[in-house]
Structure formats: structure tokens, C-alpha cells
Amino acid sequence: MRILGISASRRKWGNSECSTRMILSSAAAHGAETEFHRLDEFDLQHCTGCLRCVYKGRCPLDDDLYALLDLCEGADALVLAAPVYFLCMNSTLVALMDRLLTTDALPVGGGERRAVTVNLLGKREWRGVGRSYLNMTAWLLGFGVGQCLDVVAEGPGDVLMHGVNCERLEKTGAALAAGTELPVARDPGLCPGCMSDFFRIEPPVIVCPVCGYRGDLGAYVERGVFEDAGSKPRIGREWLKWHIDDWLRPSATRYMKRRREVLRRMRDLKNASAHA
Ligand SMILES: Cc1cc2nc3c(=O)[nH]c(=O)nc-3n(C[C@H](O)[C@H](O)[C@H](O)COP(=O)(O)O)c2cc1C
Prior knowledge:
The protein is an alpha/beta fold. The protein has a domain at 2-185: Rossmann fold. 39% of the residues lie in helices and 18% in strands. It has helices at residues 15-29, 52-55, 65-73, 91-98, 130-140, 163-178, 217-223, 237-274, and strands at residues 2-7, 33-38, 77-85, 88-89, 114-121, 144-152, 200-202, 205-207, 214-216. The strands form two sheets. Strands 1, 2, 3, 4, 5 and 6 form a six-stranded mixed beta sheet that branches. Strands 7-8-9 form a three-stranded antiparallel beta sheet. The structure holds flavin mononucleotide (FMN). Flavin mononucleotide (FMN) binds at residues 9, 11, 14-16, 83-87, 120-123, 126-128, 153-154. Residues 9, 11, 14-16, 83-87, 120-123, 126-128, 153-154 line the site of flavin mononucleotide.
């Protein structure tokens, strides 16, 4: 069992790194082969939106993206941790996520390999919306999220000082290594796809704004349970491939047909802007 651990925080030995390392060292003690990286060790440039990954199958930016994706491909399980910054995941993680349209270059499937995600936050009431993005990133990297842990750790090193956190993290590492059930049961009130805990109300359903799962509004209000109301979730690589083929690629054909006119209008706008 090869377990890859990635911390998206730029803080060395911060709470994200410590959480990831705690899971990994417990997994190693239970026989797993483990490898740890901080995301900022990789040269990952920002997506420029050129869409060449969609049209040509590969991102033209010359950096470490494909080295990172190869590492993920070679792993049997993933531990991915990131801190909440201003109610979302930190920008290092979001910058990676922006680059993952290129998963077209990778085989579909892989969702059967497990990921554990760790959502570091300073205050539960300030947890915001980050965990959905964290989980979506793990899915796009080719793993199915088996467990998403919210870990409250306000200041540097706090994660090491809470016995309950440490115990959960250690048990998680042991279960990952053994391939057994993960210790924290899934909350039935969360979105079954991305484990989001925020929803759009569209009576008679609630809709997960991230992955599109639809749940019964009555069941959610009365019993706090997310009951599937006939969903077509947009999560994972298979969905992304469909999205690329069905929606993004045709935009290239459309553009090529209208290219002359688009370029003419752009030229006009440039000229007008030069005089503005
Ligand atoms: C710029 C910044 C913004 C933050 N915003 C939030 C927030 O919106 N909600 C929250 O719960 N914690 C917030 N925190 C606290 C961190 O999520 C928390 O301290 C976390 O444990 C840091 O992990 P790290 O040590 O791996 O970087 C913020 C921290 C920083 C530095």
C-alpha cells in the first residue's frame, strides 16, 4: 500500500503538514509505504485559461504539474490537507484545482482508490465552503474521498495539542494502511458527493451548488438527512471527461467557425480602448 500525503499549506510544519504527517506515520507503523510533500515544493503556475489541455490534451505550461499527477497515479491512497483561508481553501490548493482540467490526459476511473482529506480551520463557525473544494480536488486527482475530517486548530501547532484530533488522525492512518473501514462515520446530513454542508434551496429539493446532488428538502429540514432526490452529480474524472467532450470541445469548433468575426470585433475593441 503506497500512501501519498500532500499538504497545501505554505506553512512548514503547520497544522496541515502535522495532520498529514500524523496520518502517514501511523500508516507507516501499520506497514504502508508513505511519501509526504508540501504542495509549494512543486513549481505550479497559474492556469491561463488557454484551454489547450482541452483542445490538445496537454497543458503547455512548463512546470511540475505532470510530475505531481504521476505521483498521484502511482499512489494507492491519498491524504490531502489544506487550511481554510477566508472561508475557502487556501489559494495554493485552488491554484492546483484550476489546473486539473488537464485530467483529460489521465485515465478515467481511479475513484476506487481512497482519499482522506483534512480540512484545517481556526473556528467551526468560520469554516466556510472550503471542504467541498478540497474534496473535489481529491476526486479530480483520481481518488474517491472516503473521509473528510474537519480539524479545528487555531494557532501554530494546535493540532498536536488536542488528544481527540491526534487519535482520529492516527486511527485514520491505521485504517488506510490496512484497507479497512475509516474510523469517522459519514454524516448523513452532508452532500453524498462532495460532502458539502451548504445547499441551495429550490423547493421541493435542496441542491449542492458544488457537485449538483439534489436532496429532499423535507427530509433535510425534519431529520437533518440528505436523501437523494434523483441526482446527476458532477464529480470525478468520468464526469469531467463527459463535460470536456460534451461542452468544452464544441466551443473550439464554434470559435473556429466564427473566428474571423471574433478577431474583427476584438481589433475594433482594441482600437477603441487605445483612445479611451
Ligand atoms: C490568512 C488566513 C485566513 C484564515 N481564515 C480562516 C477562516 O476563514 N476560517 C477559519 O476557520 N480559519 C481561518 N484561518 C485559520 C487557519 O485555517 C488555521 O489556523 C489552520 O489551522 C492553519 O493551518 P496551517 O498551519 O496548515 O496553515 C485563517 C488563517 C489565515 C492565515
